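Kindly inspect what follows.
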Amino acid sequence: MPHIQTDDHVQLYYEATGQGAPIIWVHEFAGDHRSWEAQVRFFSRRYRCIAYAARGYPPSGVPASMDDYSQARAARDIGCVLDALRIERAHVVGLSMGGFAALHFGLMFPERALSLTIAGVGYGSEAEHADTFRRLSHQVADQFEALGSPGFAPIYAEGASRVQLQNKDPRGWAEFVEHLSQHDAAGAARTMRGVQARRPSLYTLQEALQGLDVPALIMTGDEDDHCLQPSLFLKRTLPRSGLLVLPKTGHTINLEEPDLFNRAVLDFLHSVEAGRWTARDPRATQEIMKVAADPRPRP
């Protein structure tokens, strides 16, 4: 099994497929490197795809100390994978926890990101829900430890923003549950407490985000309630961003709507590579329409 070693001596499992410009795929909390299979199959026809399992997710290492899990550490791990594979710059695609990591990687190492795809991002950022999010994060960690991954996976997979996958693709949802049930319960609990529960709100990063001059595609489902407003905030804050909202879609966008997800990301990458994913035209931000000095109709 191919592994790289991070700068703090954690082994990360990865899979590399295809040739071309590199794309690194960063998975969500309830996923792992296998979550990107539909994307790797599609994009590896013309790109070099690197999918890796985050720390805490076997076959990657599962550090025992909570000090080894944080939002900044998750972002640095992206760089460690790229370093080990001798990749200077890459397109970075992340979902949920992976989307946060991709965004923070862009903030920390903007010169290394060809582009950022930030999907399903926002949980815990809204001030009115922050305390509830942290409390639920610790409860989820407790449940992984109490029930184990096989016992808790079916419960977690029927969350409000995941039943959409169950309804659209029962077979795909069952595979999602099976993969989640194989996760290391201790690694999941430490990730939930160390990364999820402690990550900063997007709204506290506004000034830094306004200065992030990297092409960004923001994606969310219209039934992923706690990601909708944060996604709008990111669209209004990131200078070179676009926002795509998929209808009748929950949190696991790439699994629910793989064709739409793939095509949207592909179009985005092509626009970036053509130099056409530019900053918003300042005229588009004017609040009052311009009116001609002489409003009389012309012949």
In short: The CA atoms of residues 198 and 223 lie 25 Å apart.
